[in-house]
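Lecture notes, continued. The same structure-token format from the folding unit now serves as the input rather than the output. Read the line below as a description of shape only.
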């Protein structure tokens, strides 16, 4: 990986760095909070007898095939989903958008940025690679019972941000450097996803599940370094929004 076009070089003391992280976390929380409020307001309107709408979020454990040295990158995901019921009561289509989903890998070896001063600072450090996608799963979902289900199908991804974050500890201070690398990756990703889950409250409550995504696309533009594909475990909780109100409306229509 060669040096990208945009660089932001920061060498900050731990206290300042923590304050910045706190501010960013608050902004992210506010954005997620806004999404939850909007979903709560519109949930009963998006739900019907044939469609269930809800929020979906949890933990990602991501890595990339083709990298010699790597560890799992642990990040959070957040989005919304639709369960579209089919004629057979055991089958439905699960789709939606995972709005916040960072794929990539952690603990990658440091490479040269062709900047001697910067290279010397990060010698012996490590890299976290983060690729931010809008991911759209299109899964067939089969209910084994009222509570257990399995699902599988394709997932498509649109890359909107990518960077390598260099980190090292120098004289007790944490040093970071962000290298923008989006120009080195294809915008589109595609692969297969499969999962299993459990639904609380006898099939009417929260969904708890695990999914595995197996990328089929070489996400790097430069083919000389070998194919690199995304691999991710999603540990997700799906919260249906407005299902109770939608059920009440459907029952009133039947009685009338």
């Amino acid at each position: 990986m060669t040096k990208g076009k945009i660089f932001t070089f920061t060498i900050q003391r731990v206290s300042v760095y923590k304050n910045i992280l706190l501010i960013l976390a608050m902004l992210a929380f506010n954005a997620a909070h806004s999404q939850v409020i909007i979903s709560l307001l519109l949930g009963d309107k998006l739900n019907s007898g044939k469609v269930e709408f809800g929020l979906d979020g949890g933990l990602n454990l991501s890595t990339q095939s083709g990298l010699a040295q790597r560890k799992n990158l642990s990040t959070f995901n957040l989005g919304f989903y639709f369960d579209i019921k089919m004629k057979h009561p055991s089958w439905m289509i699960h789709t939606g958008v995972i709005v916040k989903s960072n794929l990539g890998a952690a603990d990658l070896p440091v490479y040269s940025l062709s900047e001697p001063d910067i290279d010397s600072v990060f010698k012996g450090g490590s890299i976290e690679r983060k690729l931010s996608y809008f991911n759209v799963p299109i899964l067939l979902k089969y209910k084994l019972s009222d509570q257990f289900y399995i699902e599988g199908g394709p997932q498509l991804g649109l890359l909107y941000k990518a960077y390598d974050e260099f980190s090292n500890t120098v004289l007790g201070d944490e040093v970071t450097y962000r290298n923008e690398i989006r120009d080195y990756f294809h915008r589109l990703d595609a692969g297969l996803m499969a999962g299993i889950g459990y639904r609380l409250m006898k099939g009417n409550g929260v969904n708890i599940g695990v999914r595995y995504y197996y990328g089929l696309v070489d996400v790097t533009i430069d083919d000389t370094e070998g194919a690199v594909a995304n691999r991710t475990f999603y540990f997700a909780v799906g919260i249906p929004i407005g299902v109770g109100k939608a059920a009440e409306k459907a029952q009133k229509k039947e009685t009338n």
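Point for the exam: The first strand starts at residue 7 and ends at 11.
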